[in-house]
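Dear support,

We are seeing what looks like truncated structure output for some complexes. This example has two components. We would appreciate it if you could run it in full and send us the complete token output so we can diff it against ours.
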Amino acid sequence: MAKSTIYAGLEIGTHKICVVVGEAKRDGAIKILGVGQAPSRGVRKGEIVDFEKVQTCVNDALVRAEDRSDVMIRNVFLGVTGAHIESLNNRGRHRLPDEQTEIGEDDVEEAKEIARSVSIPQSNVFLHSVTRQYIVDGQEAVRQPIGREGRVLEADYHIIHGVRGRVQNAIRCVREIPLEVEDVVFNPVAAAQVVLTREAKMQGALMIDFGAGTCDYVLYEDGMITASGCVPLGGDHITNDVSMALQIPNGRAERLKVEEGSVLYDEVPEGEMLSIEDDTGLILGEVERAFLNEVMNLRTKEILIQVRVRVEDHLGRLGAGIYLTGGVSMMKGVDVVAREVFGIKVTRAGSAPVSGITATFENPQYSAPIGLIRYAQILDSEKPFLSPLKRLGRRMQELLSSVTL
Amino acid sequence: MVEYDRSQSPEGASSAAPRICIVGIGGAGSNVVDRITLDRIVDATLVCAHTDVRVLGHSMAPVKVQLGAELMKGIGAGGDPDLGREAALFSRDQIRQSIENHDIIFISAGLGGGTGSGAAPVIAEIAKNTGALVLVVATMPFSFEGRRRLAQAEEALELLQKRADALVLFENNRMGELILPKDGIQKAFNQADQLIAQSLRAISTITTTPGLVKLGLDDLTSALANANGRCLFGFGEARGQNRGTEALKKALKSPLIDSGRLLHQTKNLLVHVAGGESLTLVEVEGVMKQLGRHVPDQTHILFGVGVDAKLGDAVAVTLISSLGLNQLNAHATAAPPSEMLQPRAEAPAHVPTPAPGPKREAPAKKAPSAYAPPVESPPDLLFKSEEFAAVPVAGDAFPLNSLQAEASKVPVQPQPLLQEQPVAQIEDEHPFIDEPAPPVIASAPVFAPAPVYAPAPVIAATPETAHIPVRTPAARELADAARSSKESTLAAVVARSVTLQTEAAPAPDDLISFDEAESESETTTISATAVVARKSTADSQQTFSLGEEDRGRFKDTEPSIVQGEDLDVPTWMRLKKKLRR
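Here is the complete output from our reference environment:
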């Protein structure tokens, strides 16, 4: 009988705050039990600027999620992003003692330790350190080195780090709700778990989570995470451009962007006009559709170019192409522009391998929070099995250590 | 008034590096010279002068001068300054031979002893008479050395002040205090030597290397101008991320600055930021902003930026200032760490409003006023020798050798750094100027009389251009894309935004000034410069700020600057600016 665990993922986005409750079965399947969502206030470019507003919004979302899923949420996996998050790859090289020829667990630990002891700025903290591969005597792409014969073992790590204070602030904000933060996850890493299939990862793929505040990306090569990061530009910038170009309020610009906007302006017949209405339905003015589209196009292209600049080195090896997800990926024509910018196949994708409320998981807006559930599941499956008693002990230990922090 | 030597081509002047000589006198001085020799940090002639043969024997300096060989017979002065002076007078020919033909002479001595206090003024005078610029770096004795030595030191100090162009004074007490009590005395002295060596190096590089915002000797003297002042000096170098702030942190950590606390009372502060070619404006701005927290508003900040390829990817920050001895002691004894911020609150009370005058107007005049004697009252000569009598001491009237003259002549304006940047960009962007966007074409005929200069005023007119750097491939691609689409509505974007934006004033304003200038003068050259000059005065205040551009709802957020462009500003707005040129 498959035992299942219930996880909750919380994403504090710039546009919306979203809590997803999911059930992860032992066989790897995920069932979404409920989703709670609230419009976000007090978040700029993916980072919390106003604690109180954010806490109110998180509470709203939480209540809704609890209502729908009928689950009391105490622990969450928290997704974070922000311009301060950076990544790098590092290798740790460990030479086995002379009398030893078979690689043991200790050697792997040693190599890992060396790989992880990379110098990051003092104010920064590790978010993730993911093993990409092991290299035994120069032979690459070894998944499981224990038990192999070899002299030199190298561990190849992808390390994601961010500014400690900023990550801590996000955690603190959630703790005050109060919710316990089980783990902090870099958003695109979570989203990639549900957007990219194993095959796509093997072929090489770039996932771009085009959100309102930031544009996060993760690049996989040969099934290994190779690059990740965050461009602090997003849908809000498109809206802002529109609002400033047309001299209309932000809310109106946002609605115009979502309802009428497109990033393709070549095929728009010349002279086609759009009328801008205010809240009461009165017509404020008219605008040429091509003009609106071009303003949006310029910004979208620029954001994607910023992503491209950061992953330029790896672009040649992406067999599966680009996967666009996140709220902005629903914008009309964004795939065409992305194709123009990157020159490879572009797929718009939401999260795939889940079951439950169907309307939710197909929406690319929810890739990251659903990914958090998947991430939690992967994390747990990697952990050695602990009896409930031991688990409790560990929790107490964690609690104590967190108090002393 | 120092005349500018027109015969000398600017290239020739800058290529000839100034010849520097560092003279260490007495025990302390030779220690410093040893330190510099070992570190090989300054490209200079190093001279060690001492009465004691044993010390000379141990010294690492390449040039050694034994003072008063016949008189002293190779034995030290025994703490008697008179002996030291006599000894120096005896060997003045030797001294002159070893130090002449230099542009700048640094004299380093520990005051209070025999050789240091006695010989240093004599050597300073000889150095002065060779026509070089004389800078004295001296240390005052520890208080445990007794009153007598302190008195001797002060006497020597007085003599030195009249002869040196600038005096950098360190308080040994202060340095000793800051070293942990358990550290050995050797470490204490070592540390002191190191600091002095560092300051020598910093001063010589600041005053000699060409800078974007140049600091000259005049700035140095005004930073050090303080009655009975002691030098506050900090130096920091860092590389990697946040290198600017790291370097500043290190500079503030210097014991003489006491993590920035002592800066609260200074009137003048010299800040020099140097870096390799990768030094960015944002970094400099960050350093200055952070420094601003340690310095009261009234403080006169003398700011310099230099680009030195030797630094590679490192950034170095140097802080030099001075503080009166009384203030320094009061602060050192009475200020426990808990009251850290108190001096800041009180600072305005102590500090009389700093000379608000436009200091840079008369740098040549200011330089001597700090410590060098006024021309009318020549110093009481320590010795009268025929050759020196022939060279009147009124030679002080032009104490500044060619190097300093050059520094003071090229007026150090606050904005050269910022002005230079746009100019550099113009050159880079010339291909783009040839194909201006339609709206610009409309105005083009106005510029026709001065075709060569036409592009320049347009660019100088928009203050924001300072922040748009050399175009990057990515950005260019974007701009090209916008331009290449023939029936692009970008023209509409541009046209529309001109009508929408009320602050699109620069363009018409620019034209008017050009017309005026034209009517005033016949030659196109003059009209062009007139426009530029007019603009530069108007813009001088705006150039340093980054937040002037319209960022809409992102105006309070942390800017996302990529290669100098603020990406929070709407793309179309930035493109428009580029196309306008």
